[in-house]
């Protein structure tokens, strides 16, 4: 099976787990023999479960595909079946039970991600960078300045820029702009939303400024980029 998350393409071999957070545009090219389980979770409930898990939230900010080995295959099947059964019948304290089961599922997903196992060894600056990246994903439509993000993670603006330059070879503002451009491309490729509406959704007060911003970063106007992406 082939899957596309925004402008990223993945070829998937079973068994595998796909996680697609709210707001990520996606598409599938199913094979005739494809089988699987789809769990759709309301955003408010998922956010509550993520808060209970704590530091795992950062790992769930973006879509990903994980191969499922024999260690996790049975536990995943068990908890997914339990979630489906609980959701299909009204029961006492159903919401609490579903949250508990979802927490089990997200913890399993957290454990399956090799990069997360190394997080405890991250330096303090690396942890600050991850916090910054997570905050960008949460607040990029608000058009906050770099100083605002720096205050949220408890560093000076200069120190935040230094961290970004050290680990990703770009300043903090560039990281914010990269997310905005990525989101703009997502809308242009995967939806027929008008350019003016995309600008508004991304926090731009004037479509003209959005057009200039997009062209400065991509060398194409939003309309031209959409035409090019559609072949």
Summarize the structure.
With 231 residues, this protein is mainly α.
What does this 3D model show about the protein?
The protein is mainly alpha-helical. Helix content is 58%, strand content 9%. The protein has two domains: 2-119, no CATH class; 124-229, Homeodomain-like (Arc Repressor Mutant, subunit A). It has eleven helices and five strands; from the N terminus they run ββββαβαααααααααα. The strands form two sheets. Strands 2-1-4 form a three-stranded antiparallel beta sheet, with no helix packed on it. Strands 3-5 form a two-stranded antiparallel ribbon. Helix 5 crosses helix 7 (157-168). The longest helix is centred in the middle third of the chain and has 19 residues, at 70-88. The mean pLDDT is 86.
Which structural traits does this protein have?
9% strand, 231 residues, 5 strands, Arc Repressor Mutant, subunit A, mainly alpha
CA(first)-CA(last) distance:
23 Å
Helix content: 55-70%
Strand content: 5-15%
- Sheet/helix structural class: mainly alpha
Number of helices, counting only DSSP H or I runs of 4 residues or more: 11
Mean pLDDT over the residues: 86
Strand order of the largest sheet: 2-1-4
Number of extended strands = 5
Element layout with pairings:
Layout: E1 2-5, E2 8-11, E3 16-19, E4 26-29, H1 43-53, E5 64-67, H2 70-88, H3 94-112, H4 114-117, H5 124-139, H6 146-153, H7 157-168, H8 172-190, H9 195-201, H10 207-218, H11 222-229
Antiparallel strand pairs: 1-2, 1-4, 3-5
């Amino acid at each position: 099976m082939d899957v596309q998350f925004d402008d990223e393409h993945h070829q998937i071999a079973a068994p595998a787990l796909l996680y697609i957070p709210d707001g990520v545009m996606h598409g599938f090219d199913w094979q005739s023999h494809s089988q699987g389980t789809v769990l759709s979770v309301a955003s408010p409930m998922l956010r509550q479960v993520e808060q209970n898990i704590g530091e795992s939230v950062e790992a769930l900010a973006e879509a990903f595909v994980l191969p499922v080995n024999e260690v996790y295959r049975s536990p995943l099947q068990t908890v997914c079946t339990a979630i489906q059964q609980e959701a299909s019948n009204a029961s006492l304290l159903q919401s609490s039970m579903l949250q508990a089961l979802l927490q089990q599922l997200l913890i399993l997903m957290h454990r399956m991600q090799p990069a997360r196992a190394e997080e405890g060894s991250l330096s303090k600056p690396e942890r600050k960078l991850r916090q910054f990246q997570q905050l960008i994903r949460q607040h990029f439509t608000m058009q906050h300045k770099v100083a605002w993000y720096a205050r949220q993670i408890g560093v000076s603006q200069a120190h935040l820029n230094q961290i970004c330059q050290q680990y990703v070879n770009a300043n903090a503002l560039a990281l914010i702009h990269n997310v905005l451009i990525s989101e703009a491309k997502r809308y242009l490729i995967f939806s027929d939303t008008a350019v003016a509406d995309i600008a508004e959704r991304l926090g731009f007060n004037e479509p003209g400024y959005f057009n200039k911003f997009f062209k400065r970063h991509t060398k194409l106007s939003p309309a031209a980029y959409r035409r090019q992406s559609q072949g």
